[in-house]
TrEMBL record:
Residues 3-194 form the Flavodoxin-like fold domain. Its cofactor is FMN. The keyword Acetylation does not apply. FMN binds at residues 135-138. It holds the Pfam family Flavodoxin_2. It catalyses: 2 a quinone + NADH + H(+) = 2 a 1,4-benzosemiquinone + NAD(+); N,N-dimethyl-1,4-phenylenediamine + anthranilate + 2 NAD(+) = 2-(4-dimethylaminophenyl)diazenylbenzoate + 2 NADH + 2 H(+). The lineage of its organism: Bacteria, Bacillati, Bacillota, Clostridia, Eubacteriales. This is FMN dependent NADH:quinone oxidoreductase.
Amino acid sequence: MSTVLYIKANPKPQGTSKTLRISDKFIEVYREHNPDDLIITLDLYKEGIGFLTEEGVMMHWVEPGEGRNHPVLKYAYQFVEADKYVFAEPIWNLGIPAILKAYIDYISVANITFKYTAEGPVGLCNGKKAVNITSRGGNFSEGELVAWEMGDRYLRAILNFLGITDITTIAADNMDVAGQDHEAIIASIMTKAQEIAKSF
């Protein structure tokens, strides 16, 4: 049995977010094909994830096992104990929402999700895999906007840092481009998401 951590970073109500429509369908299909797996949904807005305080920063160097019940460190333990990750977020101003960056600051903790060695930092989340489901206003998959895309690129970099290298991106582009059939785009991406969910 695997534990899947479903991390949602979108403040819109149920059914109104393009990103979450796709990611919820992904989770639905995944659950159908993996009925014994545990799926933990972590809605960052409902959790009230905030920016790190001085205390939170000071706790970011801990001994193994320390601070398991701490209001910030508990997220790092939850993260490292999961087997698979599903991220769902829009791209805002070329990057991820601030609340998702705040969450990443919560989980990037030395001696929990990574460690320092004589050769440099080493991730402690090896052998795990992730899917990043995102929606983007323009076409960030090809052309000149590729160089501007810093949402999925950043998420991949930090996951690599934590030891996660098996990462799949499911992106709905052109969501704010006039003249595009947005529902057709979503339907196409949703079909792709369902296929990936079957073997994730």
